[in-house]
Amino acid sequence: MKAKHPLRKRLLIAGGVLLAVLVVLAAGFFWYVSDYYRAEDVALAVLAQDDGIETRDNLTILSPSVPSDTAIIFYPGAKVEAAAYLPLLDQIRQTGVTCILVDMPFRMAIFDPNAAEDVMARFPDVEHWYMAGHSMGGAMASQFAADHPDQVDGLILLGAYIYGDYPPEDTLTVYGSLNQSVEDKLDYTENVVEIQGGNHAQFGNYGPQKGDLPAEISAQEQQAQTVAAIEDFIAARQAA
């Protein structure tokens, strides 16, 4: 019986070391995800509107003044507060399209790329679904569209490129001319819109982003051009 004590001691030490490693990893993870880009006041002010904006659980629904059978599901960029995209989506809904903003776990779409499945189930009256997202959110929206082509009418990528096997002809890709990393990855030319003087961050309202070049146009102008491109893209697809 005594011979078993050294083994038990080694197991206890190994267990303690493993526990300590897990604690350090967990602490590092929560430190990483707690350091994120906050929505600016101009974005938070959109929530104060009483007309057509509703929050349900992790969703913010922006409805047009006239009921629509077309909706966009929007995945935010990584480590960006979802509300930062409200000014952009508020402008899109004014074109007659419902916008549904998804607040992702730990503010990273990679942790729930199939969130759109639940969204679609909760809005059965919508007939035409478009997936959209910014940066990593765009990549995860693209992956969902590739995995569910029969449920998606089109894909809208902002500061991102197609991730997965989804047709470029069914995709709108919008990026700023100062966001060279996106341009370098594009291997298709269909429905690609380059915003001169735009950068990576200004699709949302969360301030400068690390590693991003300063834009040569305002966020308002970059978003206005983006909305126009999205409106034209959806109109063309629905007219086809």
UniProtKB/TrEMBL annotation:
It comes from the Bacteria. Gene3D superfamilies: alpha/beta hydrolase. One of its GO terms (molecular function) is hydrolase activity. InterPro entries: AB_hydrolase_1, AB_hydrolase_5, AB_hydrolase_fold. Residues 71-223 form the Alpha/beta hydrolase fold-5 domain. Keywords: Hydrolase. This is Alpha/beta fold hydrolase. The lineage of its organism: Bacteria, Bacillati, Bacillota, Clostridia, Eubacteriales.
